[in-house]
Design a protein that fits this description.
The protein is an alpha/beta fold and about 300 residues long. It has 12 helices and 8 strands. Helices cover about 45% and strands about 15% of the residues. A hairpin with a 2-residue loop joins β2 and β3. α2 packs across α3. The protein is globular and about 55 Å long. The chain binds a DNA duplex (13 and 13 nucleotides) through α10, α11 and β8. This is methylated-DNA--[protein]-cysteine S-methyltransferase.
DNA sequence: CCAGCATCTCTAG
DNA sequence: CTAGAGATGCTGG
């Protein structure tokens, strides 16, 4: 990525959730190391040294972040575990028909109501749309949040110093929209999305899906996947009635503009492998591990 | 029309 | 076990 551009936005709120946000940088490096050297099961000591922490310090930091110890996390992102997520998910595929709502075992999930933009609105590539945006600290690094008066329209992640590229990536999806930096408008969304204590069924998060017909169907299928479960690209293809379109599903999942909320990280290859992630495979692992901590 | 994909399956070694 | 090829459906230009 072209990270040559310097800091573009003012630095924001060192208060509030900055502890969590600052944690992610170390957590990310630990996860990178774990996934690189997972074959020889790196010890807590080795991991701690790599990020300049004491073993107990890392233990506490990591557990605070994930709800899991580094060792449990390592367990949680292996192929075996991913396969289990897929297996557990299967029965629910047919059972729950409601969109993004309810069902047993979803007590800790983020509840969402969504609407799709009409194909016409999508084709105009954001023409006439006012999008307010702002950056916020999240458990997975800096998050760029984009909202319209109809709800959350975009959410992406980036590492420090890459704000400019992140904005270009997002705004390029709706090039004809009008963009207004407005942290006051986006902050409440960020605060709710990343704080499980505020995930409430009676106050669902409003999301507006801007995409083609096919993409919206795929994203709706993602919204039905419960926290702590996963689906394969091919099972999603079957679910939307296009059993041979698994590859097209992959493309549509990858085009999802509302990361995390539309849980594209819960889509895996049939082998259980984490095949790809627009915002980096490390982040996909991080989110799945973090969710494993919440699902427990 | 064509190239590019976050797929999958099958075959051959 | 891996590597490669072919079938595949949607998207943007």
């Amino acid at each position: 990525m072209n990270a040559q551009t310097a800091i573009l936005t003012k630095d924001i709120t060192p208060l509030a959730t900055s502890a969590e946000g600052g944690d992610y940088d170390k957590v990310r490096r630990v996860i990178e190391k774990i996934s690189l050297d997972y074959r020889d099961q790196p010890s807590l000591e080795t991991l701690a040294e790599a990020v300049g922490e004491t073993p107990t310090g890392l233990q506490k930091l990591f557990t605070r972040w994930a709800g899991l110890s580094p060792k449990a996390f390592l367990q949680a992102v292996t192929l075996d575990h991913a396969r289990r997520l897929l297996a557990e998910g299967m029965p629910l595929l047919e059972a729950s028909l409601e969109v993004g709502m309810s069902g047993p075992g979803r007590l800790h999930d983020l509840f969402v109501t969504h609407e799709a933009m009409s194909p016409g609105e999508h084709k105009s590539r954001g023409e006439g749309l006012v999008i307010r945006y702002g950056w916020h600290i999240s458990p997975f690094g800096r998050a760029l949040v984009m909202v319209t008066d109809r709800g959350l329209a975009g959410l992406s992640f980036n590492d420090p110093g890459e704000d400019r590229a992140a904005f270009a990536d997002m705004s390029g999806r709706w090039p004809n929209a009008t963009y207004v930096e407005d942290m006051a408008a986006t902050a409440p969304y960020a605060a709710r999305i990343f704080d499980p204590a505020r995930w409430r069924r009676d106050e669902p998060l409003r999301v507006v899906l801007i995409g083609t017909d096919f993409q919206v169907r795929v994203w709706e299928a993602l919204l039905k996947i419960p926290l702590g479960c996963a689906r394969t690209y091919s099972s999603i293809a079957e679910e939307i009635g296009k059993p041979s379109a698994s590859r097209a599903v992959g493309a549509a999942v990858g085009a999802n503009p509302v990361s995390f909320v539309v849980p594209c990280h819960r889509a895996l290859g049939k082998s259980g492998a984490l095949t790809g992630y627009h915002w980096g495979l490390t982040r996909k692992r991080a989110i799945l591990g973090w969710e494993a901590g919440k699902a427990a």
